[in-house]
Specification:
Blueprint lengths: L1 H10 L7 H21 L7 H30 L5 H30 L3 H25 L4 E2 L1 H14 L5 H5 L12 H6 L6 E3 L8 H11 L8 E6 L2 E6 L5 H16 L7 H22 L3 E5 L21
Parallel strand pairs: 1-5, 2-4
Antiparallel strand pairs: 3-4
Length: 317
């Protein structure tokens, strides 16, 4: 139980935006928990420790699988029939469990008294289960925009002027934690890792934020966000009145800024020009291919700021 609570505390806000990845991780952690239970009798001195690790692994599975199931059910509920989809998914899972129990009893009867055959059956079936889950998640083409999918779409659009479909993007996005992804694959579409959404304004010192506002405030007079580039990271300061569309726009703007970080000296000017000339074209093409552009699936934005735009012609008494 404690493991599930800790997992929710540290990763709960990421389950919506990375539903595919955490669905796969949940299955892998469940397999790992079963493996821990099976090997625990082989190490009597560490029996309790190994059993506890298996229990923690399964607690992660319970939280991640339940949360991602809800997110994926919404994707399949094309007619707002989430309850119907959930009921049918539960029925399919029950049938699969019954068939699995029957086959499991058959395999247990065949391999009884043969430890090597038992371990071979378990390991081979577990590997097949992991591969099947990986392929299933790979086939899932979500049409909601999260940071990584937005980065892939924008990168392709700036290179070719065309927008990828949800199915095409699904073959490019990561379905494993970034730490387990090969280095060359990380490098291919890592633009979203250079953007920090919802930065706390107090994380900058007073002089730093004043200098930034004096130099770039004119580029954000009509926007409900501010972009601050610092040490290769684009920080997005979100206005307290910004809505879902504003947050999506701020993130796309930050991606454009991050993409130009090593290409141009006038970052804010060039990125603002791109936003004025290309953003609406990009959004319309994205929407025409079935993408949902109402909001960006990201971690909840806790820190917001408030500021008032003042015309240069206005004077204070």
């Amino acid at each position: 139980m404690v493991g599930g609570i800790l997992f929710t505390f540290y990763q709960g806000s990421n389950l919506d935006s990375n539903a595919k990845m955490w669905r796969l991780v949940a299955d892998l952690m469940n397999d790992l928990g079963m493996l821990m239970d099976l090997i625990s009798p082989l190490f009597p001195s560490a029996f309790v420790f190994i059993v506890c690790l298996g229990s923690i692994s399964r607690s992660f599975t319970g939280v991640a699988s339940g949360a991602t199931r809800a997110a994926l059910t919404q994707h399949f509920a094309l007619q707002d029939n989430a309850a119907d989809i959930s009921a049918k998914e539960g029925s399919q899972e029950t049938v699969a469990t019954m068939v699995g129990m029957a086959l499991g009893m058959l395999v247990a009867r065949i391999t009884i008294g043969h430890p090597l055959a038992i371990w071979f059956s378990f390991l081979s079936l577990t590997m097949f289960h992991m591969y099947a889950n990986y392929r299933a998640v790979r086939c899932l083409a979500l049409n909601s925009l999260n940071p990584e999918r937005s980065s892939i779409l924008l990168h392709h659009f700036t290179e070719t002027g065309q927008v990828l479909s949800p199915k095409q993007v699904s073959s490019l996005e990561h379905v494993l934690p970034i730490q387990l992804t090969p280095w060359h694959s990380k490098k291919a579409n890592s633009l979203d890792t250079k953007v920090r959404l919802g930065t706390r304004i107090s994380s900058f010192d007073e002089m730093e934020i004043k200098e930034h506002l004096l130099s770039v405030a004119s580029y954000y007079t009509k926007a409900k966000y501010l972009l601050v580039e610092k040490k290769g990271i684009v920080n997005v300061i979100v206005h307290k009145d910004s809505n879902g569309a504003d947050i999506l726009k701020s993130f796309i703007h930050a991606l454009v800024l991050a993409n130009n970080a090593y290409k141009s000296k006038s970052l804010h000017s060039d990125s603002q020009t791109w936003m004025e000339n290309q953003y609406e074209v990009f959004i319309q093409k994205v929407k025409s291919l079935g993408w949902k552009t109402e909001r960006l699936l990201s971690s909840p934005i806790i820190w917001r700021a408030n500021w008032i735009h003042q015309s240069a012609t206005e004077k204070n008494d």
